[in-house]
């Protein structure tokens, strides 16, 4: 058996005196997608940020492809693991062209063939070449999220950590971005960890789902079990009921 | 009690270097004591349409209509003073982010009390009591304590409840909720919408609920207007959503992932130039 791409064991994160992630464990096989759902404040983003190396104040064990991760990460880590945020406006530099923002990871990692790589990255996320010399405010929300994905992918990572990547988008654009993420996973064999509060979105993209409540992962279940209502924890059942109530509403 | 809103052929345009650009292009609606949903993608003109009723448009906006009335008031010719008598009194506007609607240096209770006094005669003390009662109505657990909190001390869901309480304080006849829960997560979102639904039904008010989430809107409204590029492309009874006919409406429904009915790949919206006509 090959080892999991991502392993999280007894992860704990505290801010000041309050523990907001209280001993969370899960593993994600290479090429698989793991989703985390739960109310806001339940600790989803905090887990993702600890994995991404954006917050060094955690305890427990984190491993990437079998290698233990420390609180601080080196360049090699960011080459393998990248994060995409909910608000592409916030994560892109407002006064830099898309070209500059896509070049940066390549320069950091000393990767050459920049021109060709930028054009390929834009094509891969379905953006026309002309976008290259635009600024973020000259793009639509969906285009900006595509740029953020292109930038995360440009240095060829194996893992994408996605924090509510479609929550700020129209449903029509959400569909395009979700299809794009599915295609990229197919073609590149990427491993995803995705945070969302939308159960339909998570079960669309992820085979396995972890349900967070108050800093604990109260249940892990397959998307199929979530769809079918084979839940064990009451909070999972509650979240599922809210979601199905809306889907069944007008029928 | 509810006021009739009558809108015929609303047009809103903005100046641009290449001449005026029309972003709302002939929208008509009628509303009484009922719940109307407006859905459509961002930029389709939902907010401008609803805000035109209150004449709360950006300064550069140019507005025209064959008819635009709020009850007995002709909104098109009404002056600022007349409009102020509608806004925040006879009609309330709930926005996505309470940050912009609440005064950061006033406690929640004081703001609600002030809104209450806009319509009721009463002393400061009485207004404060009414504010606490309103906070209880929007189901804030410890209303007397929350009345003393400042906006930055409120969570997203609580801030939204405070804003709703403030909008309800003057007993308005119409409530416009513009993406009131888009910033909140599913559990809080459902609670807030149920709360709005309940209050509106109980008070016999009119409601305009704006969102880009079609199933959500249908769940809470009697009627749904679907907007595309500044026009209404379809209007249906919420109960008939599944029978929507316009390809845009169908497209919006189809492209959503579903928990109960998995789709191997999401259909994307193929836009048709004819929808603009
Ligand atoms: N930088 C921070 N400082 C203090 N508290 C924080 C910080 N980031 C998050 N928290 C707290 O940690 C908890 C979990 O937050 P988060 O992981 O963002 O939740 P989620 O992503 O599930 O909405 C919340 O109570 C939040 O207020
Ligand atoms: N102040 C403004 N100046 C120029 N265009 C504007 C302004 N406000 C809104 N618009 C344009 O009007 C259109 C409709 O806006 P809006 O009603 O806010 O859309 P929605 O609420 O459906 O997202 C958008 O395309 C937007 O770009
Ligand atoms: Mg989060
Ligand atoms: Mg709007």
Strand residue content of chain A = 25-35%
Mean pLDDT of chain B: 91
Radius of gyration of chain A: 18 Å
Rg on CA atoms of chain B, Å: 19 Å
User: Residue share in helices of chain A?
Assistant: 25-40%
Please describe what this structure looks like.
The complex is a heterodimer of chains A (251) and B (277). Chain A is built from 10 helices and 10 strands. Chain A has helices spanning 44-52, 75-80, 88-91, 98-108, 114-124, 141-153, 171-188, 199-205, 223-228, 234-248; strands spanning 6-15, 18-28, 33-38, 58-64, 67-68, 81-84, 159-163, 191-195, 208-213, 216-222. In chain A, the strands form 2 sheets. Chain A has a 6-stranded mixed β-sheet with strand order 6-7-8-3-9-10, sandwiched between helices. A 4-stranded antiparallel β-sheet of chain A has the order 2-1-4-5, covered by helices on one side. In chain A, strand 4 (58-64) and strand 5 form a beta hairpin. The longest helix of chain A is centred in the C-terminal third of the chain and has 18 residues, at 171-188. The mean pLDDT of chain A is 92. Chain B starts with a strand and ends in a 23-residue tail after the last helix. Chain B is globular, with a radius of gyration of 19 Å. In chain B, a hairpin with a 6-residue loop joins strand 1 and strand 2 (21-31). Chain B has helices spanning 46-53, 80-86, 108-117, 124-137, 143-146, 156-168, 186-203, 214-220, 247-254, and strands at residues 5-14, 21-31, 35-39, 62-64, 67-70, 73-74, 91-94, 174-178, 206-211, 223-228, 231-237. Chain B has a 6-stranded mixed β-sheet, sandwiched between helices. In chain B, strands 1, 2, 4, 5 and 6 form a 5-stranded antiparallel β-sheet that branches. Chain B contains 9 helices and 11 strands. Chain B has a domain at 1-81 and 213-268: P-loop containing nucleotide triphosphate hydrolases (Rossmann fold, 3-Layer(aba) Sandwich), CATH 3.40.50. Chain B is 32% helix and 23% strand. Chain B is α/β, with parallel strands linked by helices. The longest helix of chain B is centred in the C-terminal third of the chain and has 18 residues, at 186-203. Bound molecules: adenosine-5'-diphosphate (ADP) (2 copies) and magnesium ion (2 copies). Residues 15, 20, 38, 40-46 of chain A line the site of one adenosine-5'-diphosphate (ADP). Residues 14, 23, 40, 42-48, 58, 60 of chain B line the site of one adenosine-5'-diphosphate.
